[in-house]
Protein: Autophagy-related protein 18
Amino acid sequence: MRRMCRTNDACACSSRHPRRRCISVGTRQGFFVYSCEPFARSFQDAAGGIGLAEMLFSSSLIVLVGAGEQPAFSPRRLRVWNTKTSAAICDLNFVTAVLGVQLNRQRLVVVLEKKIYIFDINSMQVLNTLDTSSNPKALCVLSPADNGYLAFPAGGVAGEIVLYDAINLSVLNAVQAHRGMPVALAMNATGTFGKKRATFRRGSYPATIYSVAFNPTSTLLCCSSDTGTVHIFSLTGLESAVTGSYSLSPMLGPVTRLEPKAATTKAMLSSYLPSSVTRIAEGARDFAYV
Structure:
């Protein structure tokens, strides 16, 4: 998962390895790779300003995009770097700035503002180019699993997400995922999808979500926002959310949910209330935040 730094400090971006083993960080001075267990710096290179740094799992390959502060590190150039040999494997140049990069063992996905390029990661040959609507946040997520599912916002329809097969190069589905334009996307470790599972609400006041992420077993979902807090939601027991009670986690025990009668009353009241009010009442709350 990629995270752009929102401050004016030396950090330009950070990215977590899909299996939570490593973190890569791009800065104005270069890039760093940290191992998580135990936490330690495993590699660093002070070559220049880096705007994007994405690792291929826990291998020695890392994809770099310049921050544009030096001519040699243009944001329109993508470089595949080998940390073992400290040498570039190949460079890819684009007409406009590279805003996002996703990769797994079979595909490299490069996100521009209005295009998505799909490459074979072994040959680095472009396989397909997808035209998109304006996507300045580079919203796009590639499954780390072998299925190669790719998700990105659809053009022209607010809240619609396109699900694309990056292996067979075909559109799988389009999902109405939100009422408004999405600001963050995440896919679990196995790339499962198909139907709406839940709606969550992080608070009563408006906030800008910066990132969302699943845990490795897809039982928890967390999100960060401009309020400086991280909220954690449970994904267990969703099928029985209106039948009585379910356990958010083994440590917290049962939590009472809406009984069928209460759910019916809520639905009846919602029909009389403005949509702006009913939206506040919808969605399960977090069980923890920091």
